[in-house]
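Hello Y.,

Per our agreement to keep a running log of every chain we model this quarter, I'm adding this entry. I've kept the format consistent with earlier entries: sequence first, then predicted structure.
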Amino acid sequence: MIRLLIAALAAALLLSFAPPAHSQELPPLLGDVDCDGDVSTVDAALILQFDTGLIDSPRCLDGGDVNDDGNVDTIDASIILQLVRGLIDGLPPVPPDPLPPPASGEVVIGSAEAGPGQHRVVALEARGIAAPGLGAWAIEVEYNPAVVSLHDPAPEIGGRSCDNESGLVLVCNPDFASGVLRLSGANAHGLEGDTELASLTFQCGDVEGVSDLTLNLRVFADATVGAPQPINPTVTHGSITCTETLRQLTVTVIHDLNGNGQRDPGEPGVEGWSVELPGFCGGDIAFQPAGPSATDADGRVEFAVKEPWGCIRAEDKFGWVFTTVRPLVTSVGPRQTEALILVRKVGQQLHLLRGAVLIDGLPAPEGTSIDAVVDNASCGDSEIVVPFGTNYEARYTMYVLGELDRPGCASEGDLVEITVDGGAVADVTFASGSTGELHLYLGPTPMWFIEGPREGPAPVPYIGSLICGEARTRPSGFTPTSSHNVYVFPDALRSGCGAPGRIVTLRVGDEVLRQVVWQEGFVPFDELQDVVLPRVGAFAQPSGSGFSLTASGARIYAIALALAGLGLVSGGAVIWRRRRAG
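Predicted structure for the entry above:
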């Protein structure tokens, strides 16, 4: 009896330690792929890492198929995020009935050109996505590894994440396969409109060639709550062109603290300054970037350019002045060029004036002083330049400083006297933050026009046989031909030259290039009024019938009249002598 009791107690004890049979048969918690007993954004991130091939399999992968479609993919990750954000009550989700129409839109990847060894960034974007927005995607980007390589983004926890600014749950594997990048992402609320999904950096190798950037959309679904629907977007593929003809141009905007027009040690770059390469300067610009681009924290911006690359244009910021007329260009390698743009901060309380400067009919020479005077205090910060891309007249830029910038200078509403070489020429009313155009013309204003592009010396303006002006060659540097500014002086500048309305002959040596009417003010070359003068020795023919003479006939007629006059005089003298002799 005792043995039976002991056996029963032993059996009961063994059964108390054995797990119940039904606990081994319970399925994993739906959505809990890391087996931690909870469903969170970590589970969604693990599904994306599994989808991109960064991990082999989560511990509880079977729990990842939350929509029961037989796949564990980015759509499951999107539904898990909907649960975490409180958009659905539980898993599996309950699809809406009826299902709304799926979203629409397009997927685009950019194109670029680069030289050997250079890298270019292209954007992968979802554009024009309609409601309810983009909720899940798995995109493969195929490229030619023999032409370009994909820059490896910095590693992050659990995998590598492509650069993006969208705040998305996004995972990228640049080594998904040879020449294939895979990008997987999910979003609970849906991305509507235009979204940059990733910025991809490619680098050209040592050979020329073109690598197509082909997009394969493995998953592209909207954000329908409980049941994301497939989107059928328009797809635009891109390419990377690697060519020997490109040069890398690095432009750096420098804060020229001492204003000496040179980069000195300790002078920093200026961030956020817009720089572009305008095509009208004759440069053949490559694709990246095609428009203005902002400088980075070091004041730098890079361009891929062809030869010749033309000119550089930086924005004209209020409160800053350029301390060089043109960028300082230095070749730093066989296919690399560096250009420095130096700028100087003027002040805080400013009134900006701009305009042309003419002194006695000619552009102001170097050394001309322009100032703004308030109660005998110098309050102007000015410069005179001959800029490119204009009519090549001398122009000035001046910041009128306020009392916050220089003690004793202008406050709001004060009258400021504008002087040229110490002489007062105009008055302006100071208004901080305002701009205005004020031309400074001292002395008589001549006719002025630009002679079109031509080779050889500048033409000289004549009024009759008197030289009444001068010509100056325009600044060169970007075009192989020359242009000239021609200034015609009035009587006040050169006696005997007259005034507008007279005929001006343009000559190079003995060659007459053009005869025009002297017009008032500044007249472009193509708006000059040409005149045609009669040839020397030709006489105008009167209209209608009547007597007319040629030049030779007129000479014969004049000789006959002279002979007849002599005959009459001698005959009259003979008659007078006979009458007197009586």
